[in-house]
Amino acid sequence: MRTNIVIDDDLLADAFSVSDAKTKKELIHEALRDYVRLRRRKDLTDLSGKVRFIKDYDHKKMRKTRT
Predict the structure, then answer these.
(1) Whole-angstrom distance, CA of residue 40 vs CA of residue 12
(2) Residue 47 and residue 50: Cα distance in Å, rounded?
(3) What is the pTM of this model?
(4) Residue 38 burial by Cβ neighbours in a 10 Å radius (0-12, 13-18, 19+)
């Protein structure tokens, strides 16, 4: 979809400085992918009270049995 927008020049320069993107299009696509991934990430505070811990769980023992 073709869209015309006004982008802050300083913000655009900052974004290019931390990205490997060569074009504005690549940069915008990268930024949108990062934005979507960040928003989809589950907020760990939502898990409060929903995770049960096993009192005598031995993570080292589990490592040995997985091989």
Answers:
(1) 24
(2) 5
(3) 0.62
(4) exposed
